[in-house]
Each structure stands twice: as structure tokens, then as C-alpha cells.
Specification:
Keywords: Glycosidase, Hydrolase. Belongs to the glycosyl hydrolase 39 family. InterPro entries: GH (IPR017853), GH39_as (IPR049165), GH39_cat (IPR049166), Glyco_hydro_39 (IPR000514), Glycosyl_Hydrolase_39 (IPR051923). The protein has about 475 residues and is of the alpha/beta class. The chain folds into 2 domains: about 350 residues, TIM Barrel (Alpha-Beta Barrel), CATH 3.20.20.80; about 130 residues, Sandwich (Immunoglobulin-like). The chain is about 25% helix and about 20% strand. The radius of gyration is 24 Å and the shape is globular.
Length: about 475
């Protein structure tokens, strides 16, 4: 929609070798010398945010995870392995990064120095960025402290951020879909609890965040055994959001705060793919952009407080072609259909228009927008069914009304099993593990966002334009653009 993308990443404080690995990474921003004095390394940090700024992205910065040198010196951790015997897994990587800090004042100093470094390097634009404390602290997957420990971490983080610049935005708690009780306790704390830093009542908060997922495939990894067919559930996603909104709305003093659903995904399973569970194939196909379109459509009607959703995507190394991970691209930098879907959403404008439909019993929906200044209209249609094996085709008739133009040029884009879909083309090739130059060229051509048919000129009569019927398959998206032309 001609706005910059917001980008949110894990592991900005994680210790390690400063290289990436599937679904993780490390920056080594924080270390201590032998006397316990802190020193800081911004080498990787600067590369990350320089890249974001260069491309016009706006960061949502997770303040996580716990650096090695801030982990408590002695802490009993759940473990089923012996140090030195499980090659590749160290105690820090397995669990210690999930712990509260050994010293909250040192954590506060880390946050303050980090935020001040960003401010000095990138200037006033940092006031448009967002700082979020941790990720899904209601789950032991990410946090091994208590709710109270998290609230303490939040207070020290907020104090540090606001010291650097009171206009900097901080929030949380980025709880998972099942984290409503944690969310409630956190909002109780920031509104009426005793601040761990100031001893006053309440803590600064500029936004509220939580997450939702449409499916938890069981098992995530089948080890070769047969796996039952499973699909994401749009109803689950929407019910998760409604449950969390109910909690947020209990705190009237926070009703002015925006809400971010900053993980909003059809399925859990970042590092898993089709070789672990064949249901992850949805990430390769036209199904994925279609369910994302449906999520966005329905979320828009839930609450005006929801001002942002983010959709998780990762860069995976050492994978095979169309592995089925949650990414925008596969090997050879080939685009997946989800990327084309996001490009179609990017063509929508800011002013939303009314749609009347007689498709009462079919899950076919649309979003219509216009650009008054440039005299253009956009209609995004999609036919989503949760069952990714469902096959159907519906005939669609469209009439544009109240179009104050004389002549328009119509462009029709389509994502389905035969259009803008490199995965289908790869399957037709026989699923080769490696591509020769001709195959690569063909797949790169198939990923380019192309029209369903050549542009058509129409004359508007009585401010209306009725289009000939066309077919819309299940799990497909159509974008129709009307632009003003002179003949």
C-alpha cells in the first residue's frame, strides 16, 4: 500500500558465533571482561539496521534474548543430556538464553546503550520504530522466568528506553495465542502494579502485542511415518484474536493504545518442511497467499485498535528446493507464491470502498480500494477454504458502480495453480533437486507477477462497468485494477 514494511526479528542480543542458523542467529552485542565490566560489540547490529534503513523498513525491535554473560552463574535447568556428550548442543543454546538476567541493572544499561547507539546512528527516525520486550514469554520455549520476572524485565527495559528518548515507543508482551492469562497479568502490572524500578504505580506502555497461529501440526516431524492430512484453521486464528482483544478491552485506561498481532501465521513450525510433515506443503503453493488474504480481510473487521499484523518469514540455509519452510523464497532466490500475494496487497490503496455480494454461502471475499488523486480503483478477490486439498471453481460476476470516469484500462492479476506459481512449474519439471540454466530461467520467468490476460480498455457508461463472468478457483487470488485513461 505504498508504505514501508515493518520488520521484526528474534535474537538481537543472542550470544554465539555471529553467524546465522535456521530460525536463529547471534550478534554478541554484550560481553563482560574478567572483572565483570560490560563491553559492547555493534558490528552485526549495525549491519542489520543499516540494511533495514537502506531499504526503507521500519524495525519492530525485540529486546531479546539473554546474552551469555548476563545469564545467572548457577541455575538448575531442565536437561536430558550430559555436557560434552551431545555434540552440537551447548547449555546456553539449549536453555540459558531463556533466563531472566543475573543483574537487572546491567540489563537496563544494555538496553539504554543499545537504544542510544541506534539514536546516534539513525537519528530522529528511531522515534517511528517500536521496541518490544521479549517474545512469547508465556511459553517455556522462550522464557524460563515467571510472570513477575517478565514484568520486572519490562520495567527495567521501559525505564532505559524512555531515558534515551521519551518519544521512543515500547510495548509487549508478545504472548502466544494461549497467553491470555499472562497478558492479563502483564496489563494489570503496567496499569496498577508497583514499578520495579521507580517504586511508583504503573509502567510506560505504547502498544500491546500478541500472536496467533492457525495450526500446530502433529507430529511436526514424522520420521518417515504416515501423517494424517491437516490444515490451518482460519476460525482458530480469529478466535485467538477475539480472546486476546477481550483481555485488552478490560483495561479502559489503555483503550487508546494500538494493538499489534506481530506473529500472525497459518501454521507453527519455522524450521520444519515437507520432508518432516507433508502438510507443510501449503508454504509452497497458492494456498498460502490466499489464507493470508483471508486473515487480513477478517482481521480488518475485528477492531480498529489492530493497527499492524506481521507475517513470519525466514531465510533458510542448506535447504532443498521448495522444502516447505515458512519463507518468501526457496533456493536460487526463487519466489514463492506468498511473495506474489504480498505484492498484490501492495497495490491496494488507502481508501476502502463498500462491496456488495450475493455469494452468501461461499468463502469468497474481496477488498476494494481507490486512489482519488490518481483516479484508480482496485479489487482484490480471494476464495479461501481451510482444507488445502479442496478443489472447486466458481463463476464470478462483477459490476463496478459509481465510477466517475469516462474510460479505464483494466488489468487482471491472478495467483492460482496455473498462474504466478513457480512451485507448480517445478513439479511439472519432475521436482529436480538442482536446476540447469534453462530450468532456472523458466522458473524465474514464472515468478514474475503477470497479468491473467492482456489489459483491456473499457468505456464507462452511467458510472458503471459490468465485467464478463470469469472463473475463480479455490485457493486463488485475483486483483483487478481500473486506471483512468484518455482515448
Amino acid at each position: 500500500m505504498e508504505k514501508p514494511y515493518y520488520v521484526r526479528n528474534h535474537n538481537i542480543f543472542t550470544s554465539g558465533n555471529m553467524l546465522s542458523y535456521p530460525a536463529g542467529g547471534s550478534t554478541n552485542i554484550y560481553m563482560e571482561d574478567e572483572d565483570g565490566r560490560a563491553y559492547y560489540n555493534f558490528e552485526i547490529i549495525d549491519k542489520i539496521y543499516d540494511n533495514y534503513v537502506e531499504h526503507g523498513f521500519i524495525p519492530i525491535i525485540e529486546l531479546d534474548f539473554m546474552p551469555l554473560d548476563l545469564v545467572p552463574d548457577s541455575k538448575d535447568l531442565p536437561s536430558d543430556w550430559a555436557m560434552g556428550r551431545d555434540v552440537g548442543h551447548e547449555s546456553y543454546e539449549q536453555n540459558k538464553w531463556k533466563l531472566p538476567p543475573k543483574d537487572y541493572k546491567k540489563w537496563q544499561q544494555l538496553i539504554e546503550i543499545f537504544a542510544n547507539h541506534l539514536y546516534e546512528r539513525y537519528g530522529e527516525q528511531v522515534q517511528n520504530w517500536y521496541f518490544e520486550v521479549w517474545n512469547e514469554p508465556n511459553l517455556t520455549n522462550y522464557w524460563l522466568g515467571s510472570v513477575e520476572d517478565y514484568c520486572k524485565l519490562y520495567d527495567y527495559s521501559a525505564e532505559a528506553i524512555k531515558r534515551v528518548n521519551k518519544s521512543f515507543k515500547i510495548g509487549g508482551p508478545a504472548t502466544s495465542d494461549i497467553g491470555t492469562e499472562f497478558l492479563k497479568q502483564f496489563l494489570d502490572h503496567v496499569t496498577s502494579g508497583k514499578n520495579y524500578v521507580t517504586d511508583e504505580i504503573g509502567t510506560a506502555i505504547d502498544f500491546i502485542s500478541f500472536h496467533t497461529k492457525g495450526a500446530y501440526y502433529v507430529p511436526r516431524r514424522s520420521y518417515g511415518h504416515k501423517v494424517n492430512h491437516q490444515s490451518p484453521s482460519l476460525a482458530k486464528i480469529l478466535n485467538d484474536i477475539r480472546s486476546n482483544l477481550i483481555v485488552c478491552n478490560e483495561f479502559e485506561q489503555l483503550n487508546n493504545l494500538p494493538i499489534f498481532i506481530d506473529e500472525c501465521d497459518p501454521a507453527v513450525g519455522t524450521i520444519y518442511g515437507v520432508y518432516d510433515n507433508p502438510n507443510y506443503n501449503i508454504c509452497n503453493t497458492e494456498y498460502y497467499p490466499c489464507i493470508v488474504a483471508s486473515m487480513i480481510y477478517h482481521i480488518l473487521s475485528l477492531s480498529s485498535r489492530i493497527q499492524m499484523i506481521t507475517h513470519w518469514s525466514f531465510y533458510m540455509e542448506g535447504k532443498r528446493l521448495f522444502e516447505g519452510n515458512r519463507t518468501l523464497m526457496t533456493n536460487y532466490n526463487l519466489h514463492l507464491p506468498i511473495l506474489s500475494g504480498l505484492k498484490l496487497f501492495g497495490k491496494l490503496k488507502y481508501k476502502r470502498l463498500l462491496i456488495e455480494t450475493n455469494q452468501i454461502h461461499l468463502p469468497i471475499f474481496g477488498i476494494a480500494t481507490c486512489d482519488d488523486e490518481n483516479k484508480s480503483y482496485q479489487l482484490l478477490l480471494f476464495y479461501h477454504v481451510d482444507d488445502w486439498t479442496h478443489e472447486d471453481i466458481q463463476s464470478i460476476s462483477i459490476t463496478f458502480k459509481n465510477i466517475p470516469l469516462e474510460n479505464v484500462l483494466l488489468k487482471h492479476y491472478r495467483i492460482d495453480s496455473n498462474h504466478n506459481n513457480p512451485y507448480v512449474e517445478w513439479v511439472r519439471m519432475g521436482k529436480p533437486d538442482e536446476l540447469n540454466p534453462n530450468q532456472l530461467e523458466h522458473l524465474k520467468h514464472s515468478q514474475e507477477l503477470k497479468l491473467l490476460y492482456a489489459p483491456v480498455k473499457y468505456k464507462i457508461e452511467n458510472n458503471q462497468l459490468k465485467l464478463a463472468s470469469f472463473d475463480l478457483p479455490s485457493h486463488s487470488i485475483s486483483l483487478i485494477e481500473l486506471t483512468n485513461i484518455s482515448i
